[in-house]
Design a protein that fits this description.
The protein is α+β, with helices and mostly antiparallel strands. The chain is about 45% helix and about 10% strand.
């Protein structure tokens, strides 16, 4: 064998070793997303062979790189093969590293014990991604920017479980609280209906069967001319018309959960009713009303979440 042939043989051996590890990792993985990731890395590795310069230096460099990666993956494969689904869920969850580092929060005993792990496993099984919880400093920055302190049960959920929940899980979807590239905090998905500029206003607590109809009525005007002039203003959305009746009814509240077809559930954030849940069917010409237990007691976030999960 020529000297270059020896380097080619070592190159092929290192390539085959890493290729076999990727194959074994995909076979040992529990979760659909993880399986696809290993299969994707194996395809990338397959293409990488074609990019290696056909020289001694190229073969040596590639073989060293692949052997170093294989050394790390061998231990990962061993852990994967002997892990239970619960252990793997914790291992795959990036939040577990943050939590172990002590960068959590100090609001007392957990209000949502076990829920992070439960929902994380459910998300992986459904091939979904569960956002990590917020750090205490992140939540404090969001509340300062929004000008409100979020209700206790919900803010503890953000700190202990997740910043939001995607749809398609055995749990109610929750609009994620996120920070955009400009550093502004707000809610995504259904949460974009939240009027951030009015979040600190006191919630009106006004139940309605439908959106208020502000169209001028002939009986309210002394003459036909006055009525028609006002009707023109109404048709053209001129002041005092052209307002936002939904915004007027939901200021001080967060649009948290979609019921589908435009209907939603709101969490009151500001005012004496903070923490209570309201149901909104205004988009479909329905009403807005407080959720109540046994038609009397108000429903708060934790009770609503546990109920909606079923």
């Amino acid at each position: 064998m020529t000297e270059l042939g020896q380097y080619v043989a070592e190159f092929v051996e290192a390539w085959n070793e890493l290729d076999g590890l990727y194959r074994d990792l995909a076979a040992a993985a529990w979760w659909p997303r993880e399986i696809r990731e290993w299969e994707g890395k194996r395809r990338e590795h397959e293409w990488a062979r074609k990019d290696v310069a056909p020289s001694q230096e190229g073969f040596e460099a590639a073989a060293r790189r692949w052997r170093a990666e294989a050394a790390g993956l061998s231990g990962q494969l061993a852990r994967l093969r002997r892990s239970t689904p619960e252990q793997q869920a914790q291992w795959l969850d990036p939040w577990s590293k943050v939590r172990r580092s002590g960068t959590g929060h100090a609001d007392g005993p957990p209000l949502w014990p076990g829920w992070r792990e439960r929902l994380w496993r459910a998300a992986l099984a459904s091939d979904l991604w569960l956002p990590r919880p917020l750090l205490a400093a992140e939540l404090a920055a969001a509340e300062e920017q929004l000008g409100v302190r979020l209700p206790g049960e919900y803010r503890r959920f953000l700190l202990e479980v997740a910043a939001g929940i995607p749809g398609g899980m055995p749990a109610p979807g929750l609009a994620p609280l996120v920070r955009d590239d400009a550093g502004r905090w707000g809610w995504d998905d259904i949460g974009t209906r939240t009027r951030l500029s009015r979040l600190a206003e006191e919630f009106p607590a006004r139940e309605v069967d439908a959106l208020p109809d502000d169209e001028p009525r002939r009986a309210d005007f002394p003459s036909e001319e006055a009525y028609l002039a006002e009707l023109v203003k109404w048709d053209n959305d001129e002041p005092p018309y052209g307002g936002d009746p939904v915004g007027d009814l939901t200021c001080g509240a967060l649009c948290l959960h979609s019921l589908g077809c435009g209907d939603a559930v709101w969490l009151v954030v500001s005012g004496p009713l903070a923490g209570r849940m309201w149901s909104d069917h205004l988009v479909n010409e329905g009403g807005l009303y407080a959720l109540r237990r046994d038609r009397r007691a108000p429903v708060f976030f934790r009770e609503w979440f546990l109920d909606a999960r079923g």
